Amino acid sequence: MDQPGPIPRTPETGALRDRLTIPVLAFGGILMAVMQTVVVPLLPDLPRLTNSSPGAVSWMVTATLLSGAVLTPVLGRAGDMYGKRRVLTAALVLMTVGSVMCALSSDIVVLITARALQGAAAAVVPLSISILRDELPPERRGSAVALMSSTVGIGAALGLPLAALVVQYADWHAMFWLTSALGVLGVTAVWWAVKESPVREPGRFDVAGTLGLAVGLVCLLLGVSQGGQWGWGSPRVLGLFAAAVVVMALWWWQQLRTERPLVDLRLVARPRVGLSHVAALLTGFAFYANSLVTAQLVQAPKATGYGLGLSIVETGLCLLPGGVTMLVFSPLSARISAARGPRITLALGAAVIACGYAVRIADSRDLWMIILGATVVATGTTLAYSALPTLILRAVPAEQTASANGVNVLMRTIGQAVSSAAVAAVLVHHTSLVGGAPVPTLHGYLLAFGIAGVIALAAGVAALTIPGDPPTGGTRRARGRTRDSRDEALEGA
Predict the structure, then answer these.
(1) Contacts of 80 (CB under 8 A, 6+ apart)
(2) Measured distance CA(191)–CA(209) in Å, rounded
(3) Which tens digit of pLDDT belongs to each residue from 94-129?
(4) Sign of CA dihedral 291, 296, 302, 305
(5) Which of 25, 44, 320, 474 has the greatest count of CB atoms below 10 A from its CB?
(6) How much is the pTM?
(7) What DSSP element (H or E) covers 411?
């Protein structure tokens, strides 16, 4: 039975709110991605603006990564248990509070704490996808989920040039006041337009599992993200990796013996779920190298012989076509998944990503070819990211969709963190002196593109090994009208 909304639902307001559910949730996803990227243009100037070291400033990115990785599966599980709309609203509130803190302070400790709070927004997309599964009829669900998945790339493409423009023409605090206002708008819109999902999984929240996952992920991702700066063979990094292995092994043992675990590892062990998570990790790696390397490449000095010397605003505009492409191609992804199955869509997306990197390797000197290659990668990412949640929705029971999608997003996050570390390692080992300063060589960039392309092909292979796509056509449609979501999930798994 649907829970009543905060405002009485007359037939007119109820119909309006139903129509606005998808746009409101998509706005929340875009806002989350914008929040994650707006700090990037500030990073070179923040040491001066905050009277702190570059190492301390880098924690404004690291803190968001760590908190997002930890909170995504935790908030997903909380959504399955206590209400997805309630937890989604809480995540957006934490994100907005963090933005207000950034707007009010120039103290680096406060800024790092605020960015950690904003990491909670990483759970917005999996929670929203779960709400869409619970509230929408099957014929609308595929396109809505595809759009929701694409908001990550759309928001990232919009956030960089927007933040660069604000930073260039206004005080840097104004950027966070703007995102705070957008955050308040997002919270209000969700509170008004989104109904609480009636699908719940009762039980006691797994506190021990939450703490174990948090410690294990922090050790793993801290070692990955700081390995280049601290040294991959340093005692700190090796100690973090060793601690991650030990803690995650104990966490795995604890999860298998808990009646209501934070992550249902028996469900993860099913090939259809587990291989989807592997594909998510590999796709996250391949996707992230695109924006990471492109931004550095086009900003490289012209004296390198390949660099274009673009400003941060111009760099953001180079990535903007990719964001527009993700918006345009998300409906196509849903149609391919409906006709051929999501694993085919995922494999196709991975192949398109690899083709995009082939374009980058063929020519990374001309601006139009750089934009073309980056846009092709973004197109493939749209297909892949839109298919991943559909695979999860078809493979798990309805009452576990938020937590399962949260784990899938976590795997993408880990893939992005490993991609960042790998790209940094490659570029550090392929440098030349330009004007007395070490600058990555074109060969280093091309090698990074090649690695990302190979990883994309591996994601495609993982997609094709996912078993048991449900049959398409009239037989499936007839069956789909008569069985509930749990039966469909168990059959698919």
Answers:
(1) 130, 199, 200, 201, 399, 400, 401, 402, 403
(2) 30
(3) 999 999 999 999 999 999 999 999 999 999 999 999
(4) negative
(5) 25
(6) 0.83
(7) helix 401-428
